[in-house]
Write a structure and sequence with these properties.
By secondary structure, the protein is an alpha+beta fold. Helix content is 38%, strand content 23%. The strands form four sheets. A six-stranded antiparallel beta barrel has the order 8-9-10-13-12-11. Strand 11 and strand 12 form a beta hairpin. Helix 1 packs antiparallel against helix 2 and helix 2 runs parallel beside helix 4. It is elongated.
Length: 529
């Protein structure tokens, strides 16, 4: 497949004052003008001249992209959670991209049926704008925390199948992207949509979605559709709403299965990392270039997980439906201060006549407002929960601990997906969790040099040697370094944190090494974990 040339970025964006494109998408008048224009355009497309209507769709998508680009910079300027107004703006952008790209897809099907020397160019341009619009729809759905639209991938597959059957799939076309003109083949644009659909499942923050979209715009031409399931590969069905999955998982309709090889993603990740070491942000242009390097590092971690899944070709763990009610604690600070204390306090209402209740009346833990979630499915590696409280602040990458009503050890998890409520009566978001440990333990470590206490969570690993064991601690405590003393079962150990295995907002999961007592003063090598 071809590699798309680098886009040309203008010194300043067009004013966009053609027709109804002026102003800001936060302006109700601008939104109504766009809504009216899209309705008129769709009506002309159904009853008017196909060629003229198609040109209007392409022009509208160009102007809309320039309008959104200006707004996008303002929306993504803050790393804070969006306000309701900003969320509604993102949802409106998503829905308009959906309508415009659908109009382009319909125009493509109509234009292919009209023979003539200009058909390949005009039809191909409509297909390119339609696929680019579908990709933008997926990205803005992730930003707006909107549910996945399963019909979108069905339409994208139809466009690509028609492009292949008419010999247009390899043709290069320039489309508006991020205020610039970017050139790529229809195959590359289709792969871009597939990759975004697989990555944007409620597990990316707004900035991460923008970063990954900008990277895929540069790289999608290097990922090959093939018949050979070798290397880092994923599969998808040519029909239906299903997206990319592990290539080793064969479906009933395996005859229509296509394979996508993403071996090149490994070198692409290396390119970004190499740029970091030189003080450069890849690709160096667009809205994502202004984000802090930490945002790019978090996006890279998502890509590494995605690549690892393609290399190992493992199916998702089987999930079992559940209806349990759990207490939830969010953030490392709350987990340390509350979750492990709460496991010793019964969740059910205490009997006021019980002497134990009177003894605990002044316990500060009794004043903690408990928040509950519903466990709706679970697998060996994760779980899905629906939050009772809409105010629960748990974004992707943050730590949560859940605790059953009957007590036990808190299960420490990382939020990997976030979706809006599903209308089942629970007003809070739905969260997908990766279980870090089902058998954790809170420990208070002590710095050898200063005697300062360091609060941490010990996560035992699955291997008997202990090499997978680790500690959850704040990033500040990890960066401070130095020797620490841990007392476990009346025995004192000297240890030192070393490499970070996972990281999120304010927390790190680090391996550690146990320092031999004789080397405590000199910091000799010990048992790395």
């Amino acid at each position: 497949m071809d590699r798309a040339p680098a886009p040309t970025w203008p010194a300043s964006l067009p004013s966009g004052r053609e027709g109804s494109a002026a102003g800001s998408v936060r302006d109700d008048c601008v939104r109504r003008a766009w809504d009216d224009e899209i309705r008129r355009m769709r009506s002309r497309q159904q009853s008017g001249d196909t060629v003229v209507a198609s040109e209007a769709v392409v022009a509208a998508l160009r102007r809309f992209d320039h309008l959104v680009t200006r707004e996008q910079h303002a929306l993504l300027a803050t790393a804070l959670r969006w306000t309701q107004s900003e969320q509604l703006t993102a949802e409106w952008i998503r829905s308009r991209y959906r309508e415009l790209s659908q109009a382009a897809a319909e125009g493509f099907r109509l234009r292919v049926g009209i023979p003539g020397p200009d058909m390949p160019r005009e039809a191909g341009q409509l297909a390119a704008f339609g696929l680019a619009g579908f990709g933008a729809t997926v990205k803005w759905a992730e930003m707006a925390e909107s549910p996945r639209d399963p019909t979108l991938l069905v339409e994208a597959k139809r466009i690509f199948a028609l492009a292949e059957s008419t010999g247009l799939a390899g043709d290069l076309h320039a489309v508006a992207r991020g205020g610039a003109e970017a050139t790529a083949s229809l195959t590359a644009r289709f792969v871009h949509v597939l990759m975004l659909d697989a990555l944007c499942r409620g597990n990316l923050g707004q900035r991460q979605a923008e970063i990954i979209d900008s990277w895929l715009g540069e790289w999608s031409g290097d990922y090959a559709l093939t018949d050979h399931a070798e290397g880092a590969v994923l599969a998808f069905d040519e029909q239906g709403e299903g997206g990319l999955r592990a290539a080793g998982v064969m479906q009933e309709n395996a005859a229509t299965q296509r394979v996508l090889n993403i071996d090149a993603l490994s070198s692409h990740i290396g390119t970004v990392v190499s740029g970091f070491r030189k003080g450069e942000i890849f690709p160096g242009h667009g809205c994502a270039a202004s984000f802090r390097v930490e945002e790019h590092v978090a996006a890279l971690e998502r890509l590494r997980q995605f690549l690892n899944g393609a290399q190992r070709r493992e199916a998702r763990a089987l999930r079992v439906g559940r209806t349990d009610r759990l207490a939830v604690f969010t953030g490392l600070a709350e987990i340390l201060s509350t979750a492990y204390a709460e496991q010793r306090v019964a969740f059910k209402q205490k009997d006021p006549a019980d002497p134990a209740t009177a003894r605990n009346a002044n316990d500060s833990r009794s004043d903690i407002r408990r928040r509950f979630v519903r466990l709706f499915d679970e697998s060996a590696s994760g779980m899905g929960i629906a939050c009772e409280d809409p105010s629960i602040a748990a974004d992707v990458g943050e730590l949560v601990a859940v605790l059953a009503e009957e007590g036990g050890e808190p299960m420490v998890c990382e939020v990997v997906r976030r979706a809006p409520p599903d209308g089942s009566g629970w007003e809070g978001p739905r969260l997908g969790l990766r279980v870090l440990s089902r058998n954790s333990r809170r420990l208070t470590l002590q710095r050898v040099d200063s005697g300062q206490a360091v609060e941490a969570v010990y996560l035992p690993g699955g291997d008997r040697s202990g090499r997978e064991d680790g500690f959850l601690a704040s990033q500040g405590d990890l960066e401070r370094g130095g020797l620490l003393e841990a007392v476990i079962r009346d025995r004192a150990f000297l240890l030192r944190f070393h490499h970070v295995r996972r990281q999120g907002p304010g927390w790190s999961l680090a391996g550690f090494e146990v320092i031999p007592e004789a080397a405590g003063g000199g910091g000799g090598r010990g048992d790395a974990r």
